[in-house]
Amino acid sequence: MAENNLMKQLSERFIAAQASMDATVGDLRVRLRGMTARIELVLADLEENGVGADCAGLAGLADDSASIERLARRLGEQQINVTEASLSALKASDPRGF
Question: In 8-91, where do the E strands start and end?
Fold first, then answer.
C-alpha cells in the first residue's frame, strides 16, 4: 500500500510540474507576442514616418524584456528539474542500481 502511495505521489508531482511548465510557457508566449507587437508597431511607424515616428511604444521595453528573461530562465530551470527527477526515477527501476 505504501508503494502505491509513493507512485501516486510521484505521478501527481510530475503532473503538477507539467502544469507549472505549461503555465510558464503560456505566460512566456503571451509576453513575447506583446513585445513583438509593440516593436512591430514602432518599426512600421519608423518606416513610414522616419524621424517623425512616435517611439513612445517602446517605453518600458527593458522591464518587459527582463520579465521575459526571468520567465525563460524559470522554464530552463523547470526543464532541468524535471529531467533530473525523471533520471532519478529511471535509476530506481534499474536493477543494477542495488
Answer: none
Q: What is the pLDDT of residues 15-28, one digit of tens each?
A: 999 999 999 999 99
CB 58 within 8 A of CB 42: yes
C-alpha to C-alpha distance for 21 and 35, rounded to whole angstroms = 21
pTM of the model: 0.82
Residue whose C-alpha is closest to residue 27's, from 74, 61, 79: 74
Q: How far is CA 1 from CA 8, 14, 18, 56, in A?
A: 11, 20, 26, 63
**Cβ count within 10 A of residue 71:** 19
d(CA 25, CA 23): 5
Question: To which residue does cell 518600458 refer?
Answer: 60
User: What's the CA gap between 26 and 49, in Å, rounded?
Assistant: 34
pLDDT at residue 34 in the model: 96
